[in-house]
């Protein structure tokens, strides 16, 4: 089915199987004689999908007892607000690793003091700050594990003396994580686990109920926990495709297996960037993301940027233009991006190099 090599940052490439299953369910959902977007979300057929969704999450990420997985509207951007609504009494600590982190910080400031423990803004967020101290008097510490725009990633679970909250929008399910180290993990689905329209939040239940301010009903995690993400009508079609995407992941060996593939895919592309005389990577090597690979033309060859974009486009590459704040190129190589697409991009880079430099 795929006719192009899709490197879009989000929404992005999804497994063919998930899309085919979506098409089938749009016509007839589980033999109900109705489309999946026509059935009642209170029907037992739909409730089966919601249950399967949560149980796939729990199985694929080995989520321990005491956590609930929520599926909510509003995207990761609404989680920027929901997190402080539910957790921030006096003070929160944030690591500023990009504009998404900055947006999360902005929302938290409406609820109390925000301590930015470190920032890599000075170098357009091309590395992950280290050697910072997490204040023990803050209500939580917030990190953005994968910085989609800059191609940097916190690839290991960090130790935090206080509740750890992570925006994992663009690396969730790409590598194994120890969920027990986190109080909340959230993100938009559209980068690695489904289409736009639904956000996930993995919430440790015992951290809730500790703030003194009023929490509006729709902002309150405990309301959504009590009603199994069905306090109001959930984004049914987005959730349906998410379930199909997770089924595909499970069938392919789960997170541990896809992680190995992801490492191979990233290595292939980074090796070419490092070898090629025309290109250079923008992220600090030790912090390179395995999901978003950012690179630019080497000094002296900047004039060829447009030509390379056109050359890649003519060979079926889609979505490799870098974010405007970084420039150059970005290849998002999420779980469903096949290794063949990366091989095709590498070949493009090699052929273009020969054209320019002989
Ligand atoms: C895309 C992205 C977001 C925003 O997600 P929405 O679902 O569009 O609100 C937040 N954080 C990160 C790391 C992202 O990549």
Any key phrases for this structure?
alpha/beta, Aspartate Aminotransferase, domain 2, Aspartate Aminotransferase, domain 1, seven-stranded mixed β-sheet, 14 strands
If you had to describe this structure to a student in words, what would you say it looks like?
This protein has 358 residues and is α/β, with parallel strands linked by helices. 35% of the residues lie in helices and 16% in strands. It is built from 9 helices and 14 strands. The strands form 4 sheets. A 7-stranded mixed β-sheet has the order 2-10-9-8-5-3-4, sandwiched between helices. Strand 6 and strand 7 (152-153) form a beta hairpin. Pyridoxal-5'-phosphate is lined by residues 10, 75-77, 100, 144, 148, 167, 169-170, 188, 191, 199.
Secondary structure: elements and pairs:
Layout: E1 5-6, H1 16-27, H2 44-61, E2 67-72, H3 75-87, E3 91-96, H4 99-108, E4 113-119, E5 141-144, E6 146-147, E7 152-153, E8 164-167, E9 184-188, E10 199-204, H5 221-226, H6 236-251, H7 254-275, E11 279-281, E12 292-297, H8 305-314, E13 317-318, E14 329-332, H9 339-357
Parallel strand pairs: 1-13, 3-4, 3-5, 5-8, 8-9
Antiparallel strand pairs: 2-10, 6-7, 9-10, 11-12, 12-14
Helix pairs in contact: 1-6, 2-6, 3-4, 7-9
